Amino acid sequence: MSYHFVKTAIIGASLLALLSACGQSKALVSGEQPAIPKQSQTSAPESQPAVKPAEQDNMKQAKVKVYYGDENGEKLVEQETTVTYQQEDGKYAAALKALSESPGGKQLALLKGIKILSANLKDQMLTVNLSIAPEGRLGSGGEALLLQAVQNTVFQFSEIHSLEILVDGKKVESLMGHMDLPHPIKRG
Fold this sequence. Notes:
The chain has a domain at 56-186. Helix content is 28%, strand content 24%. The chain is built from 5 helices and 6 strands, in the order αααββαββαββ. It has helices at residues 2-20, 26-29, 53-57, 90-98, 140-154, and strands spanning 60-69, 76-85, 114-122, 125-132, 162-167, 185-186. The strands form 2 sheets. A 4-stranded mixed sheet has the order 3-4-5-6. The radius of gyration is 20 Å and the shape is globular. Residues 1-27 form the signal peptide. Residues 33-56 are annotated as: Disordered.
């Protein structure tokens, strides 16, 4: 009787752990692929502040490489895009913001639901302060891709040697609870 009870308890605990799995999708729990939310067709577009004509004259443009998830959320896909900014530090925030915009096709914007609050370069370290909305949270595979996409995007600029990522102004151990977040992340 005791053996049967222990066996049933172990199976029950295993099933409970399997089903809870931090709220991830069935595919992530089974290890088939990382969980990256599909792009919602009903999400409201973010409102952009109108650029005044005088400000348009001061705008600069740069071609940058940005990285998205492939349709299965298994690897990064590089794409070149043009970003517009006013001041030199604005180039970094604009490049990171491009990661949150869906490029079309089957690529996934990994920073969708993540707002870049600031990006400031000082002593070759870029400090990025961001805010993560609930819909911006990803599974462990998605978080790993997101961190790699941010690093690849930021470290294409030769003047950046390290990256400090803050969430709502604070250092955190992990962006979404799955991957350790070094402080700072150094160019590899």
